[in-house]
């Protein structure tokens, strides 16, 4: 027994009625003690693991399809299939199954599946009724045959019996011969009956019948029968379309006749399913599941046969990239590759992986780089579809190719730049192609699919490459349309119509919106690289020019870009916004919008609400200091009053911190003298503690009197720093004195006064909390005076 003969793929049918590939291995039939019966075993060819262990049950209905498939159901909604590499291996296993069940291997089905509901009804049917008795195949009996075929569709057992009868008597070919006779004599009634018969036979859902009906000598007659729908006044001309309009184009001659026949058959069967047959009703939706499987396995076989023909594919890509190839020929080649990739979607993940690796080795990406830059719109559209298949399959493969391109070439010929330029130059008024390409670019620059385990440096290297070689191409239209912003500052508020940097062109506005959407994605996911780029190009200022656009969706895109930046709560960005006064165009847009309650109004208010809720102090201070007069009249929301309230609270906190540490120089000197006078016995801790207790009231009284005098004399004159003289350090204050922590609180606050005089309005709540915590540890609540100027 050769290995290839028993080589199989194991498939299971999923909930979407699609076949899932469970792996490739070698099948055998042996007795399994645990299952107590002869079983089918499939062991994986990669590691020998068990892919399938299925007992051949006497009551299971096995079907043989297309000479190399065995299909069966093991439980409710659990269908299995073995796809053999060779017909001989399929025949061997089929004979083994039939031997176990005691069936004739000449048939393509081993059982008559019986519904539980019908089991009792047919329990006592004698053996002689194994097949349905078909009327003679004559014109006069067509109505009777049509009634019979239609009547069995509701009964699974009768469908099985009718299918067996049609197969054993060669009835299908007789019916198709009768069709030719009826058409010659224009027997419309007979043709209408044949339509019902052929449609009903298709709904029997039997692969063995499909093999006969879709063979080269029968399929066009089947299509002919389906032209004569009784509901139509005139028959459809499907055969004329298939033979004359639909042309089979061989971009490279296919020498394998079996492959050619398979391609023709698949196209015609797909046409029958998609075009000719009416959409199945809810009760008929499973009637054509086998037809779907038939097409699926055909496509798998076509892709596999083409993939194995290395000479054919090599020639395809050679001609695709050859400068001498005519445009019409290249268009056909690109369309072939597109169709080839579409067929590959029927493959399972591991097979699709091998498929795209084959294309990559053959040079699919360099070929795309050439054809995507061509002037032919059809070629570019097909190339975009191919590129989308590649990016969807493996973004890393595309990124790896892009980074390996020679850097000495012009940036314009880099694949990603070709894609960006195609996006920018999309001639479609609705920018359908640009939207598709923008989605692909976002996938390529998304760090989420840059696998660190595969290549730890992929993210860093690719993003550095993208921002160095590609970002300027992406932002070029944006920068070009906002280049005259400096001149526009002289324009009056509300004069957006004459603003030269906000073109009225809807298509340009749509393109800028797409670019902004991509840049907003970068702000969220790229942090360092996009931050550097925004700062170097002053990009946010240029983007906010678009707040003047008459297209509200574009103004909203610009606002969303700024909102994402502020949402990061990055002080680096905040300082950039404050320094550039970049809230001005946003506030102007809010004021220009007037009393209109629209999305722009809500989005701008949400931006300021976020700043208020998150208490971004630097931005709150900037907004209130510079724009509150313009905003205080807006009272239908409390956002701006809330910002003012936050501002005042912070100002009060800052003032309290300043006042808490401010001391008059003279009172501090006198107080310190008292300190040192009372601290002569510093070596004895207990004596110091006792003296402090006795003298505290006197010292504190003198201190407060001195403080009041100093405050009255210095109020309004030198309150900003003259009282901040720092007393000289004294060796009398020792860290070794354990009791000193509670008595050193008076002179210490003088030290930070110089620092607080330089502190701006902005403070961070964490700093204040830490300082207060330290004060609580170092000072007794009873002995901590809170001074006020």
Automatic annotation (TrEMBL):
<keyword id="KW-0175">Coiled coil</keyword>
<feature type="compositionally biased region" description="Polar residues">
    <location>
        <begin position="733"/>
        <end position="744"/>
    </location>
</feature>
<protein>
    <recommendedName>
        <fullName>Serine/threonine-protein phosphatase 4 regulatory subunit 3</fullName>
    </recommendedName>
</protein>
<dbReference type="GO" id="GO:0072542">
    <property type="term" value="F:protein phosphatase activator activity"/>
</dbReference>
<dbReference type="GO" id="GO:0030289">
    <property type="term" value="C:protein phosphatase 4 complex"/>
</dbReference>
<dbReference type="InterPro" id="IPR055236">
    <property type="entry name" value="EVH1_PP4R3"/>
</dbReference>
<dbReference type="GO" id="GO:0005654">
    <property type="term" value="C:nucleoplasm"/>
</dbReference>
<feature type="region of interest" description="Disordered">
    <location>
        <begin position="673"/>
        <end position="695"/>
    </location>
</feature>
<feature type="domain" description="PP4R3 EVH1-like">
    <location>
        <begin position="5"/>
        <end position="101"/>
    </location>
</feature>
<dbReference type="InterPro" id="IPR011993">
    <property type="entry name" value="PH-like_dom_sf"/>
</dbReference>
<feature type="coiled-coil region">
    <location>
        <begin position="644"/>
        <end position="671"/>
    </location>
</feature>
<comment type="similarity">
    <text>Belongs to the SMEK family.</text>
</comment>
<feature type="domain" description="Serine/threonine-protein phosphatase 4 regulatory subunit 3-like central">
    <location>
        <begin position="144"/>
        <end position="649"/>
    </location>
</feature>
<feature type="region of interest" description="Disordered">
    <location>
        <begin position="761"/>
        <end position="789"/>
    </location>
</feature>
<dbReference type="GO" id="GO:0006974">
    <property type="term" value="P:DNA damage response"/>
</dbReference>
<dbReference type="InterPro" id="IPR051137">
    <property type="entry name" value="PP4R3-like"/>
</dbReference>
<dbReference type="Pfam" id="PF22972">
    <property type="entry name" value="EVH1_PP4R3"/>
</dbReference>
<dbReference type="Pfam" id="PF04802">
    <property type="entry name" value="PP4R3"/>
</dbReference>
<feature type="compositionally biased region" description="Low complexity">
    <location>
        <begin position="712"/>
        <end position="725"/>
    </location>
</feature>
<dbReference type="InterPro" id="IPR016024">
    <property type="entry name" value="ARM-type_fold"/>
</dbReference>
<comment type="function">
    <text>Regulatory subunit of serine/threonine-protein phosphatase 4.</text>
</comment>
<feature type="compositionally biased region" description="Acidic residues">
    <location>
        <begin position="673"/>
        <end position="686"/>
    </location>
</feature>
<dbReference type="InterPro" id="IPR006887">
    <property type="entry name" value="P4R3-like_central_dom"/>
</dbReference>
<dbReference type="InterPro" id="IPR011989">
    <property type="entry name" value="ARM-like"/>
</dbReference>
<feature type="compositionally biased region" description="Acidic residues">
    <location>
        <begin position="764"/>
        <end position="778"/>
    </location>
</feature>
<feature type="region of interest" description="Disordered">
    <location>
        <begin position="712"/>
        <end position="745"/>
    </location>
</feature>
